[in-house]
Amino acid sequence: MSAIGALRHRLVQETPVETPDGLGGVTRGFIAVDALWGAVATRGAAAEIADRPGAILAHAITVRAPATVQPGDRLRLGARRYLVEAVSDPDGRGRFLTCDCREETP
């Protein structure tokens, strides 16, 4: 990722929070913690879902470092939500982070 203009999507970083539900369990939700500019690249992945072939949309989202994005966080772009599964520094220089994500459906 070299062109600054490639980071043209305004993403909202959300982190998971758990609140007691009063019955001994917890309710998991997300709260917004940061706004980031990023580049979203879609990758398709074949998968078997309920014994039927299907597709899971996988995405690589690149943001400028230092960002606090961690696996388990979520990135939101409008109504679309991407669950962060892994985070890496692709060139080892600490300038950008690449988040391997899968899109959540409501």
From TrEMBL:
Taxonomic superkingdom: Bacteria
Protein name: SPP1 family predicted phage head-tail adaptor
Species, as recorded: Ancylobacter vacuolatus
Upper taxonomic lineage: Bacteria, Pseudomonadati, Pseudomonadota, Alphaproteobacteria, Hyphomicrobiales
